[in-house]
UniProtKB/TrEMBL annotation, chain A:
This is Uncharacterized protein. SUPFAM superfamilies: Actin-like ATPase domain, Heat shock protein 70kD (HSP70), peptide-binding domain. Keywords: ATP-binding, Nucleotide-binding. PANTHER family: HEAT SHOCK PROTEIN 70KDA (PTHR19375). Belongs to the heat shock protein 70 family. Pfam families: HSP70. One of its GO terms (molecular function) is ATP binding. It comes from Daucus carota subsp. sativus. InterPro entries: ATPase_NBD, HSP70_peptide-bd_sf, Hsp_70_fam.
From TrEMBL, chain B:
PROSITE patterns: DNAJ_1, DNAJ_2. It comes from Daucus carota subsp. sativus. Residues 68-133 form the J domain. Signal peptide: none annotated. InterPro entries: Diphthamide-biosynth_chaperone, DnaJ_domain, DnaJ_domain_CS, J_dom_sf. The lineage of its organism: Eukaryota, Viridiplantae, Streptophyta, Embryophyta, Tracheophyta. It comes from the Eukaryota. This is J domain-containing protein.
């Protein structure tokens, strides 16, 4: 029964009748699955249009309720009351949970959500469950996301009157490649093919590029360059991008992102209102779930009001004898969340530095996302960028999904007679990708903020005399020490002929194509030889599943430095 | 997958990329190449003369051995920063895999264009590069082959400028 829910009649190879009904049967639609809300947009032949659900909503709540036999998502489901989402039967915030292990602080923070998140703190996936008929029914973030995507897909197919298979999905900048594979897995479960994954601010950048193109009728690729900073703060993630735009081409100069967002603001304020919150809910009975739900709704309302009012009265009866009756003003709210706002500032500064752009050279500053109404967020972005006004030509909640829909049309090869699709995003890598060398050092091969597609290589060598094998361990991240980065996979180069250390040349080549697929190629060649000793290895990464922390430790324990590599010095001469 | 196919699929390996011999954009290049105006960089006069000579002997061979970054972007050596940027964007609009008509070759082509652009758009790197052109043409016989070209050539042993830029 549950399995049926994953398969919307998948007929991408459908009848000629259906194909002829639409001039562009294969245009990918844009999907923005937010931590809290989600939306779908498509290219209608002349412009981008947002889909509405049966209740005429463009923004749909991202959650799935496991109330009855068949789970239902927030696409069409009519909630009797906000509290129903908080009854323990609904799973939400899956975007914060997907692809994370139970040692992750984000997973630990999610234990405050009104459903079951259980951790064992050993680096495996957390146990997640919904309350169904007084039983905790287990599920996974992938499953929840897939159920939700099936509903979205069904909705889109009905309205577009054609099968929908290809999508362009927006993702946070800080997603690791492992998290991306989990997202792709969820899409595959829902019968969807991910044509492109766009970091959210780059989707906004594409929309901005189109707006600039419309404003100034100029030739492709020419015209004056505009540099924009895009700040996107949603419920789960905050992302920053700096883009250089001219003639419809948006070149991403730098990206920065972190797992902070409205959810953190909410949790901090909840803990401020009820300091013994964590101990109060530790037993996770039905009453505790209700307390969590009540407090969550009250706090959420208060934060929304604080965007427009200086102070707000919070009155909530948690039903266990605890009543919260408190006036919270804006300053208090900002003080409680000071660390979050400082982190946001840091991201903006880092992104500007990485892009090598001075604030004076910014043509526009664009603020989007669910948190863009919060006065403190507006002020901090204005403050760092030293400007009075923000770009106002963009809808803060719809920009990302509209950009994704544009990319969907462009990447599907659609052209527009009026030039509205003469657009291109040149994406950049959000994180360094490299290998482990000299023990636990991370040696980047593709640096972050490199334009994609890209191919880079570096030559390594052995660290022991007559070393027969070399271990290539691939990581992604910004840290100098490998353990702090995400492991993507590993493989062994074998059959290295006996030679003094530093002699064999182990070439590691990394390749990312336009759809962001990473391949690692490696092989060994002896000095003076014309051909590699053995066939090169080609590995599509990531290959590791759960517990990547374990793999690194196990490899170190088993092989110590026996199979280590080091950078061949002659690289540095070039 | 065999080693041969890995190697030939590598852009740094194949000295004679199909994109350079078959693409319409690049075919128009020789003309630009012959009329260099306002040499702004010190070594450009010499090196452009060198290049013109090698180009005129045999276009095919020239493309094989020494396609300059300027040729990749289709601009004269004296091009201004704005011209370089604009040439890059125009090429990206046709060569980027998202928009290219022929998907197969476009990734390699775009990587080359991007490498050329990132060198030429940085004044320091560009000056270094211009000096390299000058040096290389003098020491073309004595140049040591880098390690990678020995096994990657699968018959071809030449280097090209893009590969040098990747280091």
């Amino acid at each position: 029964m549950a399995e049926q829910a994953y398969t919307v009649a998948s007929d991408s190879e459908t009848t000629a009748e259906e194909k002829s009904s639409s001039p562009f049967p294969e245009i990918a639609i844009g999907v923005d699955i937010g931590t809290s809300q989600c939306s779908v947009a498509f290219w209608n032949g002349s412009q981008v249009e947002l889909l509405k659900n049966t209740r005429n909503q463009k923004m749909m709540r991202s959650y799935v309720t496991f109330k009855d036999e068949t789970p239902t998502g927030g696409v069409n489901n009519q909630l009797s009351h906000e509290y129903e989402v908080l009854s323990g039967a609904a799973i939400f915030n899956m975007k914060r949970l997907i692809g994370r292990v139970d040692t992750d602080p984000v997973v630990h923070a999610s234990k405050n959500l009104p459903f079951l998140v259980q951790t064992l703190d050993i680096g495996v996936r957390p146990f997640i469950a919904a309350l169904v008929n007084h039983m905790w029914r287990s599920t996974t973030p992938e499953e929840v996301l897939a159920i939700f995507l099936v509903e979205l897909r069904a909705m889109a197919e009905v309205q577009l009157k054609r099968p929908v298979r290809n999508i362009v999905l927006t993702i946070p900048v800080s997603f690791s490649r492992f998290q991306i594979t989990r997202i792709e897995r969820a899409c595959a479960m829902a019968g969807l093919h991910v044509l492109r994954l766009m970091p959210e601010p780059t989707a906004v950048a594409l929309l901005y590029a189109q707006e600039q193109q419309v404003n100034v009728h100029e030739n492709m690729g020419s015209g004056s360059e505009k540099i924009a900073l895009i700040f996107n703060m949603g419920a789960g993630y905050t992302d920053v991008a700096v883009t250089a735009t001219a003639g419809g081409v948006s070149q991403i100069k730098a990206l920065a992102g972190a797992t902070i967002g409205g959810e953190d603001l909410l949790q901090n304020l909840m803990h401020h209102l009820l300091p013994d919150f964590d101990s109060l809910i530790s037993s996770r009975g039905i009453n505790e779930i209700k307390i969590m739900g009540l407090l969550r709704v009250a706090t959420q309302d208060a934060i929304h009001k604080l965007s427009y009012e200086e102070n707000v009265q919070i009155d909530v009866d948690l039903g266990n004898g605890t009543k919260i009756c408190k006036v919270v003003d804006r300053t208090e709210f900002e003080e409680v969340n000071r660390a979050i706002f400082e982190h946001c500032e840091k991201l903006v500064i880092q992104c500007l530095n990485d892009a090598k752009v001075e604030v004076g050279n910014l043509n526009d500053v664009i603020l989007v996302g669910g948190c863009s109404n919060i006065p403190k967020v507006t002020n901090l972005v204005k403050g760092v960028c030293k400007r009075q006004e923000l770009y106002d030509g963009i809808n803060t909640l719809e920009a990302a999904v509209c950009g994704a829909a544009l990319e969907g049309a462009v990447a599907s090869g659609i052209s527009d007679p009026f030039g509205s699709l003469d657009l291109l995003t040149i994406q950049a890598t959000p994180l360094n990708i490299g290998v482990r060398a000299d023990g636990n050092c991370f040696v980047p091969i593709i640096l972050k903020n490199t334009a994609m597609p890209v191919r880079k290589e570096l030559v390594f060598t052995t660290v022991h005399d007559n070393q027969p094998e070399a271990l290539i361990v691939v990581y992604e991240g910004d840290e100098k020490v490998v353990e702090k980065n995400h492991m993507l996979g590993y493989f062994k180069i074998t059959g290295i002929p006996p030679a003094p250390k530093g002699n064999p040349e182990i070439t590691v080549c990394m390749d990312i194509d336009a759809s962001n697929v990473l391949r690692v190629l490696a092989g060994v060649v002896m000095p003076g030889a014309q051909t590699p000793v053995n066939p090169f290895m080609e590995v599509r990464m990531p290959t590791v599943d759960d517990g990547h922390g374990w793999c690194g430790e196990a490899l170190l324990r088993t092989y110590q430095t026996n199979l280590d590599v080091t950078v061949l010095q002659k690289n540095k001469l070039h | 997958m065999t080693s041969a196919s890995i190697l030939t699929s590598h852009p740094l390996i194949s000295p004679l990329s199909p994109s350079f011999t078959h693409s319409g954009d690049h075919r128009q290049l020789p003309a630009t190449n012959l009329r260099f105006s306002k040499p702004r960089v010190t070594s450009s006069a010499t090196s452009s003369a060198e290049k013109t000579r090698s180009y005129s002997t045999n276009t095919f061979q020239a493309a094989n051995t020494a396609v300059s970054l300027y040729q990749i972007l289709g601009i004269p050596m004296g091009a201004t920063g704005v011209e370089i940027k604009s040439a890059y964007r125009k090429l990206a609009r046709t060569c980027h895999p998202d928009v290219a008509q022929v998907k197969s070759a476009s990734t390699e082509e775009f990587i080359k264009i991007k490498a050329a652009y990132s060198t030429l758009s940085d004044p320091e790197k560009r000056a270094d590069y211009d000096r390299t052109i000058f040096r290389r043409h003098r020491s073309v016989l004595s140049s040591q082959e880098p390690a990678y070209s020995r096994f990657r050539g699968s018959g071809y042993t030449s280097r090209n400028w893009e590969s040098d830029q990747c280091w």
